[in-house]
Write a structure and sequence with these properties.
The protein has 226 residues and is an alpha+beta fold. The chain folds into two domains: 31 residues; 194 residues, Lipoprotein localisation LolA/LolB/LppX (outer membrane lipoprotein receptor (LolB), chain A). Helix content is 27%, strand content 42%. It is built from three helices and twelve strands; from the N terminus they run H-H-E-E-E-E-H-E-E-E-E-E-E-E-E. Helix 2 packs across helix 3. The radius of gyration is 23 Å and the shape is globular. The chain starts with a helix and ends with a strand. This is Selenophosphate synthetase.
Length: 226
């Protein structure tokens, strides 16, 4: 009888310890994501680690004019190729000179348009943010959630600038506003539409202004994975 009596507390202690460990693990695994993280993951950020190369053409149509440049980005080697008409230049982003620094500025701009949701994680230490609900989107006039990010005043390619992202319950971006220097009035407002799924990445291929012939869009989009 004594052996049985003594074994009950030991079993109870082990069972309690297992339950405690399980609760701790669940608590760690289920850590609440921030709003920027929710947006990034809604656009497939978890699949980015599998992408070894991404290729895209950045296009802008304004009235009767057309501008286009193509990029091939080897994400593992940090190697970028830019193609504009018959002009091709390849460089490494870790080894820039005066010429490639300027070229890389164009790449940063075009990549930001393509992968802005992912920049919410990549740039998370460089901006502050706030979140609001039931806000009227500037183009569609639909009620949306709104995320505003404001970059710091030093460093980077967009110091002090602000971006307002408008999205629904699925955290997919529908519209955005760029405000240079965090000014109140919008510097640019466009839609986010024509989404395409490229190996798990949700990418908006078309951005339009409300009352303009302006279109910014992507073609030749390919995401190569391992």
């Amino acid at each position: 009888m004594k052996a049985i009596i003594y074994s009950i507390p030991l079993f109870f202690i082990l069972l309690t310890a297992c339950k405690t460990d399980k609760k701790t693990k669940l608590s760690t695994d289920e850590k609440e994501q921030t709003i920027p993280e929710k947006i990034a993951y809604a656009h497939g950020f978890e699949n980015w680690k599998q992408v070894k190369e991404i290729e895209f053409s950045f296009n802008v149509d304004r009235d009767t004019s057309h501008f286009e440049r193509k990029w091939i980005w080897n994400t593992q080697k940090s190697q970028v190729t830019r193609i504009v008409k018959k002009d091709t230049i390849t460089y490494n982003r870790n080894n820039l000179d005066s010429v490639t620094t300027k070229v890389n500025g164009g790449f940063i701009n075009d990549k930001f348009w393509l992968l802005a949701p992912f920049n919410l994680i990549w740039d998370s230490k460089n901006y502050t943010f706030n979140h609001a609900i039931n806000i009227e989107a500037p183009i569609s006039k639909n009620a949306c959630q709104k995320l505003t990010i404001i970059y710091g005043n030093k460093g980077g390619y967009t110091p002090g600038d602000a971006y307002d992202f408008y999205f629904g319950e699925d955290y997919i971006i529908k519209e955005w506003v760029f405000r240079k220097g965090n000014q109140e009035e919008a510097s640019m407002v466009t839609t986010w539409e024509d989404y395409s799924k490229e190996n798990g990445l949700q990418i908006s291929k078309m951005h339009k202004k409300a009352e303009s012939d302006f279109k910014l869009y992507f073609t030749d989009l390919k995401a190569k994975i391992y």
